[in-house]
Amino acid sequence: MFEQFNELLNACGLLASKGKIVDASFVNVPRQRNSRDENKQIKAGETPERFDENPAVKRQKDCDARWMTKNNVRHYGYKNHIKANRKTKLIESFVVGTASEHDSQRIEELVDENDGELYADSAYRSAEIDAKLKELNIRNRIHEKGYRNHPLEESQKQNNHNKSKARARVEHIFGFQHNSMKAGWIRTVGFKRAELQIALSNLAYNLARLGQLGYRMV
Fold first, then answer.
1. C-alpha neighbours within 13 Å on the C-beta side of residue 170
2. Angle of CA points 144, 118, 136, to nearest 5°
3. How far apart are alpha carbons 40 and 47 in whole angstroms?
4. pTM score > 0.85 for this model?
5. 21: closest CA among 152, 137, 166?
6. In CATH, which of 3.30.420.10, 3.40.50.2300, 3.90.950.10, 2.60.120.430 is domain 2-29+65-212?
7. 92 contacts 8 by C-beta, under 8 angstroms
8. Cα Rg for the chain, rounded, in angstroms?
9. d(CA 3, CA 9)
């Protein structure tokens, strides 16, 4: 449904403009009350014996979700990786991963040769991603990153500031999803159900955003 709706958006020219933004946001699920040994087994891709012995318990256990700490906040669940149109703030594509994945891990599944230029925060800056964008002839507008003993120069800081004006637009998307749609929290069990919920959230956002743009599809 998401792809079919975006085909209509593309036919109307709403996704045609060059300039894309990529980012990821946490989508939390109910936290599990497991023992340390059970969590260790789940992390290793195994199913604890207690779950197999009790089907009623197993149905309520999410063995796909993962933990992640960011800015001293603990998250348990998944991540919604998106690519958005810089001009319209419509979501063009998305990939669902676990919360423990690094933001940049899914970028190759999002970008393509038609993107023109790509904006992202410094978490996406790496030699591998730089090479991939060059291969696809995409202008690299990812924030530059400073390192220990190698801080950013003033010119680089200014470049990052200029890029932020475009990159920050993706935060409006996640802000709407989390605040207006309450989509930062879902009550599902397992990856497939979470993926469906996140897909529907992205579709619902695009429908709402189309209304904000004041565009009527005939």
1. 24
2. 110
3. 10
4. yes
5. 166
6. 3.30.420.10
7. no
8. 19
9. 10
Length of the chain: 218
**What 3-state DSSP class applies to 13?**
coil
The pLDDT tens digits for 124-148 are 999 999 999 999 999 999 999 888 7
What angle do the packed helices 191-212 and 2-11 form, to 10 degrees?
30
Q: If phi over 0 gives left and psi between -120 and 50 gives alpha, with beta otherwise, what is residue 91?
A: beta
Q: At which residue do the structure tokens 């036919």 appear?
A: 11
Cβ-contact 90, 12 below 8 angstroms = no
Spatial distance between the Cα atoms of 120 and 87, rounded to a whole number of angstroms: 15
pLDDT tens digits for range 169-188: 999 999 999 999 999 999 99
Query: CA 118 to CA 100: how far, in whole Å?
Result: 24
Nearest-CA neighbor of 20 among 110, 87, 118, 95?
118
